[in-house]
Design brief:
By secondary structure, this protein is of the alpha+beta class. It has two domains: about 5-235, Rossmann fold (3-Layer(aba) Sandwich); about 240-355, RNA polymerase II/Efflux pump adaptor protein, barrel-sandwich hybrid domain (OB fold (Dihydrolipoamide Acetyltransferase, E2P), Beta Barrel). Helix content is about 25%, strand content about 35%. Bound molecules: adenosine-5'-diphosphate (ADP) and magnesium ion.
């Protein structure tokens, strides 16, 4: 087990900067997720830990040792990729033991370690098969097993589940989390999928264009995104954003955008910028019913489209050209094309400065 520490790390490919002043402390035994859109620099960050890329400047520590100059094979790191990279002509046992053989461990020790890993991953009965005789999920397990037997200081995962179908992905998510509970090894996990990030990470680093926008627990990132990018990236279905103005009338703050006028009682701002973006998640908008008549912040909108998601339906709504969506549990009398009234939960508003996109406290 080990900590990993990025200190003022920059990475350029030629003139193009792909990582910008990365500072990151991965704690001993932590499960840290790096999440962000394609091309934001996640793989580059991870590959630096493995020694497959060099930082242009800055220092990288594994434990208390600077590893900038240390070869990949000497770093005691194991990496799992999206394409499992198993040797097709070798059995599962041979695939798992190959790295240990190269290190010249004695064969009793190798067998012991492979059996232990196979036991944890429940692939004991597959040890004699070739990769082509395995399903995608089983292959992914073998790839994990090959890492486990090495007993590395840090596990690195680069989108390991992207090739699997949705059901298997959900299963493997749980498996990898369980594996972390058992092994308690430091793990860094790269994904572009916010669900994987939310469900797996003890902390999440949200990366955008080579910059870590926010590093925090899933819950904190969901509740207190530092800017509009993070707010829009984390959470599914996505947060709604409505641009408008905040002003005071009769001593009460209001948010106005087109015909939408919301009462902001209970909200305080240090400063109010000229243009503000209101953020509200679809789950914080409800359908007005006869029971909650007295609520304020009621918005009339036309139901453009209904997406049934099982437990809830996602309603795509249009209020005089302002579009937003709401997740609604029970939509009995709602059909596409009708107008209905929706309640915006004032305790769930987020505000961003339209110019800087930063969260407004
Ligand atoms: P991610 O994993 O988040 O999708 P990467 O870390 O792979 O992103 O890439 C970050 C950026 O660096 C991308 O714009 C990519 O095109 C660029 N890049 C990655 N590897 C190289 C390379 N070897 N040479 C030049 N540009 C690269
Ligand atoms: Mg990548």
């Amino acid at each position: 087990m080990s900590t990993v520490r990025f200190e003022n790390i920059n990475k350029f490919y030629g003139d193009i900067q792909v990582l910008n002043n990365i500072n990151l402390d991965v704690e001993d035994g932590e499960f840290l997720v790096l999440v962000g859109p394609s091309g934001c620099g996640k793989s580059t960050t991870l590959r630096m830990v493995a020694g497959l890329e060099d930082p242009t400047d800055g220092q990288l520590f594994i434990g208390d040792k600077v590893v900038n100059e240390i070869e990949p094979s000497k770093r005691d790191i194991a990496m799992v990729f999206q394409n499992y990279a198993l040797y097709p002509h070798m059995s599962v046992f041979e695939n798992m033991s190959f790295g240990l053989k190269i290190r010249k461990l004695d064969s009793a020790e190798i067998t012991k370690r492979v059996k232990e890993a196979a036991d944890i991953l429940q692939i004991d009965d597959l040890l004699l098969r070739r990769p082509k005789e395995l399903s995608g999920g089983q292959r992914q397990r073998v790839a994990l097993g090959r890492c486990i037997v090495r007993n590395p200081k840090v596990f690195l995962f680069d989108e390991p589940l992207s090739n699997l179908d949705a059901k298997l992905r959900a299963e493997m998510r749980v498996e990898i989390k369980k594996l972390h509970q058992i092994l308690k090894t430091t793990m860094m996990y790269v994904t572009h999928d916010q669900t994987e990030a939310m469900t797996m990470g003890s902390r999440i680093a949200v990366i955008n264009k080579g910059v870590i926008e926010q590093l925090d627990t899933p819950d904190r990132i969901y509740r207190h995104p530092v800017n509009k990018f993070v707010a829009g990236f984390i959470g599914s279905p996505q947060m709604n954003f409505i641009e408008g103005n905040v002003s005071s009338s009769d001593g009460i703050l209001h948010f106005a955008s087109g015909k939408i006028d919301l009462d902001l009682s209970g909200h305080n701002f240090n400063t109010i910028p000229s243009k503000v973006i209101l953020g509200i998640r679809p789950e914080n908008i409800s359908l007005k019913t006869s029971e909650n008549k007295s609520s304020n912040n009621i918005i009339k909108a036309v139901v453009d489209l209904i997406e049934p998601l099982g437990a809830v339906s996602l309603l795509h709504l249009n209020s005089d050209g302002i579009r937003f969506s709401a997740s609604i549990k029970s939509i009995e009398n709602i059909i596409e094309g009708i107008e209905a009234e929706f309640i915006f939960d004032g305790s769930s508003f987020h505000f961003f400065d339209a110019a800087s996109q930063k969260y407004l406290d």
